[in-house]
Amino acid sequence: MLIPLFPDFAPILLDLKEALHPALRAAKDGVSEFTFANLYLFRGRYNYRISREQNGNILVSGDLHGKRFFATPCAMPDIPVLERLLAEHDYWKGIPDSILENNRPVIEDMGVEITEDRNNFDYLYNKSDLALLSGKKFHKKRNLVNAFLLSYPDHHDCTLTSEYTPQALAILERWKQDKGSEGDYIAAHEALLLSAELGLEGRIYFVNKHPAGYCLGEYVAGASMFAVHFEKCIDDYKGIYQAVNQFFAASLPSGCLYVNREQDLGDDGLRQAKMTYRPCGFVKKYIGVPHKTQPR
Length: 296
Hints:
Oligomer: single chain
Mean pLDDT: 95
Shape: globular
Strand content: 25-35%
Number of helices: 12
Order of helices and strands: EHHHEEEHEHEEHHEHHHEEEHEHEE
């Protein structure tokens, strides 16, 4: 299935993976939202639609809180295309550093106000930091992992293949029950059912032979980074989140240097938790608003 040429947009379907996935995975910033899997899994929440320029550059359109936005996950669009996108949308979402590096003056000259979207910065960690938890700064994390190992010596993990989908779904159901709200349940559920088709990879963790947690995501930024899209565990096992975090990082290949654990969405508790793992940086994103009006 072909991606329509701009100004036409079409819904994101599984049939578009072959056309979209390679370019999105190669985008050097590693923005977690702009992978084929993430766009597909959250297509309902944001009403994502897709288009392309003549040169193949991918364009995304969506809705959030009654406002229309567009995104350019791979490259700066041609100026006439950008002018039309700005005219037909309320704002430009998820602008990565790679686009602003050489194009910020041109964009601002077009009357676009650019601001940091801190709530949507992806947290970036050195894989080795998460895998080793070395030094004083990770003392508390290391203690929780050690406590988990002492409490649950009978633990093991496996590659999360379709064979283990029922066990992972059981973990997700228990997570939803304990949380008391859906959160990203719908996307997480579909991700497990379509992990092979979407190119997602992960591991599932067992305690006393019972499914206890799983981690699912994909390689981005030319496979130098792994984006963790879903990490679900059963809280009954003290220290399991810290253990899964460490075990999964340790399982990644040597060519993968960073772990992208996505954004905090402005949640203070989640921000504090993500900061305790000492990020080495952020995948920064910006919002561009034409004519000095602000999105809600």
